[in-house]
């Protein structure tokens, strides 16, 4: 997705939060309302590494 460092528009609704990049919706999540609640959406936060940590120099991920 590559949104790190970009400015996005976030719409907060009664039961969900929606994120837009330009006119395109890029994420939609149920709004967490209880204090201390957390949710990790791994597919939104991790990008495949170009090189495996500790790999032989010049090696790339498959």
From TrEMBL:
Protein name as it appears in the record: Transposase for insertion sequence element IS21-like C-terminal domain-containing protein
Taxonomy of the source species: Bacteria, Bacillati, Actinomycetota, Actinomycetes, Kitasatosporales
All residue ranges annotated as the Transposase for insertion sequence element IS21-like C-terminal domain in the record: 3-39
InterPro entries to which the protein is assigned, alphabetical: IstA-like_C
Pfam families xref list: Mu-transpos_C_2
